[in-house]
Fold this sequence. Notes:
Layout: E1 2-7, H1 11-19, E2 27-33, H2 36-42, E3 51-55, H3 63-73, E4 78-83, H4 88-97, E5 101-104, H5 112-120, E6 125-126, H6 128-138, H7 150-160, H8 165-172, H9 176-190, H10 195-204
Parallel strand pairs: 1-2, 1-3, 3-4, 4-5, 5-6
Amino acid sequence: xLKIAFIEDSPLQLKILQESIHFRSDIQCLLAxxxxxxxxxxxxxxxxxxxxxxDIDLPGQSGVxxxxxxxxxxxxxxxxxxxxxxxSKLLLQTFQGGATGYLLKNFPLAELPLFIxxxxxxxxxxxxxxxxxxINYFQPKHAATDTLxxxxxxxxxxxxxxxxxxxxxGFFNISIDGVKYHVKKIYSKLNVNNKVDAIRAIKxxx
Length: 206
């Protein structure tokens, strides 16, 4: 029988998680607590766990901070982060600390038993949106200048020099809407949302 634990600060969410597996005779919830501190207090000695689901945003010690100690105590367990935060930095930080899964809380709870079974068969448990962040992290990085046209680079240089949209439009002899069109393309290529970040990306050559 698989032994699992939930660490989730929302009593309602905790109850729902427990109910999602209560009908499974092959899965037993040993602990369901609202904080990391409560987890350690309630943990029986010499208890083994197969899967630990940990909310990231917890009162007291956060889920991120708890991962290394959980990994040390349960070296063979699967540690899956539960969160509403689609944050690539948190994803990498928790994986580096020893987590083996990262689930956004919008997943169908009815599928949780299947997720657990997948884990125990050696599969990975990560929300599709977060998987993309991992792929981007490990793919070769290209310089921002490789993705922009000469005109787009020149436009960014003007912004860096303090030109306004109107002044930039005059420089290129195009409308302000034309400038905005090029800016939108630049943001998309660099995966940024404002001029400051776009200029920083170019100067950092990332």
